[in-house]
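Fold this sequence, please.
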Amino acid sequence: MKTSAHPTPSAWNGAAAVGRVHALLGPTNTGKTHRAVERMLDFESGAIGLPLRLLAREVYDRVSERLGEQAVALITGEEKRVPPRARYFICTVEAMPPDLDVEFLAIDEIQLVANPERGHVFTERLLHWRGRVETWFLGADTIESLLREQLEHPTIARLPRLSRLTHAGQHSLRTLPRRSAVVAFGVQQVYELADLLRVRRGGAAVVLGALSPRVRNAQVALYQSGEVDFLVATDAIGMGLNLDIDHVALAADVKFDGFETRGLEDTELAQIVGRAGRYLRDGSFGTLAPLPELTPRMVERLQSHRFAPQRFAYYRNAQLDYASLAALLASLARRPTHPSLRFAPDADDVLTLRVLAKHPDVAALVSEPAHVERVWDVCRIPNYEKRMPEHQAERLLPLLTQLVQRGRLSADYVDSQVKRLERNDGDIHVLLDRLAAVRTWTYVSHQSGWLDDAASWRGRTRTLEDRLSDLLHERLLARFVVARTSPLIAAASRSVRPNEHHAFAKLAQLETFVDPAREAASSRDAWAERVISGDFGAFKLEPSGEIGFEGQRLARLAPGQSRLRPTLKLTLPDWLHPGARSRVERRLHAHLKDLVAYLFEPLSQVTRTLTGDARESAPLRGLVYQLEQGLGTVLRRQVAPQLEKLSATERTALATWQIELGRQTVFSREMLDAQRSVARAALTAAWERGPGGRSQIDAMPLESPAWPIALGLSRENCLAIGFVMLTRWAVRCDVLELLLNQPNIAARKRTDAAADEVRTLLGCSAADARAILNELPQARRSRRRRSRRGTASQPASDRSE
């Protein structure tokens, strides 16, 4: 909601804030946008302004899938979906409706107030737009001092990056690691790099700001699915697009920003290289030869996310005077008085207005304030085709003339303009230009009152954009991606004798070529697809950490950051072609996440079923956390403080979900089942595995309830797989508690009857039963008995540990 319809420069510190104002700041990959969207959905109504239409569409898809399309509106320059009962508005910042009245409002990438071309729009939102109850501004750390200076009592939170960002130096195209994004600043350079990657590495997806959402999504899907391992993009990827990028390579360090060619600023570099790594996965960055390596000082800044604070915001007066064209230009030229505000350079709309204001036909046409306002509305049509101001003014003059004289655009005129774009011929450049022109007419069709039967025109331009998008995607595939049969032909070529290569090369050019090698490759591709689409149960996990599929070893768990976060050492077959290999790799990493989630499901159910104070109970959450760290088993003495503070409700919840509070241990009974026991053993073996690749867990008979302890096995790792280490024996925790609850054993009777009970329960020999019986911990003495002895010595049951 705007605080005033016509804000003035004095409102910089004077506008009364509506509701609470918060700022969520941090580098890339901190989850700021995700948190803002989740917070918005806590309110009955809300809006979020995003820096890119592609990001707005991504957020809209996510929210509408969750709530249904009737509850969510999407508003960008050329796309408006506003259901009658929409409660949440996902918009680009420029397209946010001025009459929004919502409880929650958020503006993403607020540091763009310093962008010469768009900054004045973000500044206007910062100064005057608020939600009724709560407002969030999201952005980089560099904006903090400016926000503290200009906002009245903001609550500012800083978020750390979720993953590390490391410098990887300079790469060539041949040494560039897979899952890399190469960033260039110019369409021609993007095409050249993509062409080179096609020849040398098999192909690349292309992401440009000029692409339609449909093309961009198709190109991203090409990369995300692993059909290609490289992405070539402009700095459009620096504004929050979520991609699985492991490495970002800069191919240039200068760009044309619409006004001049200049070097990249530190914060711009940070936004771009910060796309490397996603969520908890680390990423790297560097340069692409021949661009020299980044300076050590720049590397340190990018890795530590420390940059100079932002001291100013670009400003353009929003209180416009429509008395005449001269008055309108004068109001747009009004300069700010606050020292933190810098007058914004003339954008495309102002430059076009200056040209039209000098045109004799326009001067004769405009005779009243309503006409002046209409001139400004036409000048604000985005310059998608990047025309010079004079050419853009000439293009817009027929629209302006019709709107002023008739109040509507002629259907015949619009039909003639759209019809000339309804063609399928042309290369990539031609299709991009055609798509840009279509976007202009899509924007026009969304302007209120400009067209009769506007819905029909929107449908027509949308259909045309989709068709051109599909054609453009096909052209991009044909130019920048090696034909998908090439790995099959390569496999076949390796199977022929040297003197047959010439003949084979001719055959390989035939689309109808078929031979046994191709059929074998097709079978292998089908196998890869089964792996990629296989459900959780289709993968076989061994206690040693080996992961297999249909008898084929795929990976082995390896040490990671903790026992709960292992890594994968892949053992994929050599005959997988690069695209399939990459997709299988990602499926295995997804399976690893599913494996950990499956293991801890019994624990997550405990807190999920509680409500109210019980759900926020620190003792209960502390106990569950300890169980998670112990993979489902902890010693009772380690969690004694939490157990003493548990309420009856919390103890009931634990019992419901089979969390046993034993005499020696606390454990999850469900996490002792066969499948989860294998998962526990695999995670522990991976964590414990030494440099030689062997683990003591590998040789343990985990299916037995008790076994002799192997030399070198630690008590912690033994407990993590569900066993309590005594002196020379390890006994599974549930069996140990069962033994300690037997009357003869609990009374410390070292009789033949007690030994027989142990032998019966464990299925072991009489000699082993007696040995285990002698190692069982003693029952705790009562407090009264200890006090008589005048000692606070440790209970015997705990001394055994």
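Confidence is low (pLDDT under 50) at residues 2-17, 484-518, 779-801. Residues 454-480 form the longest helix (27 residues).
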